[in-house]
UniProtKB/TrEMBL annotation:
Sequence positions that bind Mg(2+): 205, 207, 297
Enzyme class, UniProt record, top EC level: transferase
Main location class: nucleus
Gene Ontology biological process terms in this record: DNA modification; double-strand break repair via nonhomologous end joining
Domain of life: Eukaryota
Protein name, entry field: DNA nucleotidylexotransferase
Similarity annotation: Belongs to the DNA polymerase type-X family.
Catalysed reaction equations from the record: DNA(n) + a 2'-deoxyribonucleoside 5'-triphosphate = DNA(n+1) + diphosphate
Residue span relative to the full protein: 126 to 498 of 498
Source organism (scientific name): Oncorhynchus mykiss (Rainbow trout)
Amino acid sequence: VNCSPPTAVANVSQYACQRRTTTENHNKIFTDVMEELAESSEFNESKGPCLAFRQAASVLKSLPSAVHCLKAIQGLPCLGEHTKAVMEEILTFGRSFKVEEIRCDERYQALKLFTSVFGVGPKTAEKWYRRGLRSLQEILTEPNIQLNRMQRAGFLYYSDISKAVSKAEAKAVGCIIEETVHWIAPDAILALTGGFRRGKEYGHDVDFLLTMPEMGKEEGLLLHVIDRLKDQGILLYCDYQGSTFDVSKLPSCRFEDMDCFQKCFLILRLEQGQVEGERGLQRDPGDSRGWRAVRVDLVAPPVDRYAFALLGWTGSRQFGRDLRTFAQKERQMLLDNHALYDKTKKLCLLATTEEDIFAHLGLEYVEPWQRNA
Ligand code: DGT
Ligand code: MG
């Protein structure tokens, strides 16, 4: 085995926003394990280890080739002793005993299952676990459990929503959204965001950003879109959140929080016939209904916030996290989905494109398909 480090390794940045990470992951055998360890740490509210595993996975995803021995990762940032021990185990035995132990853990299994339901976060999952519940069936038949509207939809469409959305399905959803939005407002600006903008083949939902070229005109837009989807008979679920955006409170700088733009979390009915390559096909012989439910997010910022929202909603989550950390630690700036604030100059920097934001931060531009950190 050739153990010399890849030449590029010497200057891998600790920040994902200074690395280029495509969907081609040469180190999946390590990163899958690390992401499971991160998830398990998250369930145990161990924030430090959770972040460390996510950062390590992210660095490995950016490497141009597979790691075959520990020597090859010498000098790489964000790989701590714990991570290296896990990698050594995988290199020696082809598996991680630590992660296999976690996979067998009753609590981990239950929390993973419960949080796979739309509308169920770690807190609710933990509450159900403590009440002795272990399966989805037990939750549905437990008389004292009050599900909210989102969770009821989550259970109702569970088998569809827990199935990955393909690129072809995302494209079909894009056609529906585009037609709907432009029927209402021909000059509306619409963009695909999230994982599919980064070129991913599969996703858990389809994310879009929409706005109007004239400030303020975006205000009633989402409600119109929702009405129109309802009229078409394809709106299975809708959670609309009005804007709580307040320019005078910029920047909010609550990193992990949701932004304040008007948005809606939807479940749409997608006809199989509308999906390219699926026309006339019946994928699953047991499923003859010819449609599936798909999770769709729509976010509508005012146009002067569009670039920040686009950058934030394109992700990946880790890429966004590192952009904000880089801004703060290296540039004394605060970045979120709404704005970029220069603490030294005490002013908000304007941007109409993502390129503007990278330039303000003194970063080389990273294309969406290189942000799969
Ligand atoms: P997936 O699972 O295939 O849909 O992957 P993504 O990357 O599309 O993830 P998704 O749909 O959960 O969110 C799209 C991006 O939007 C994500 O990369 C980061 C951003 N985002 C979504 N929700 C939040 C949030 O609550 N806080 C912050 N800071 N960012 C968020
Ligand atoms: Mg997504």
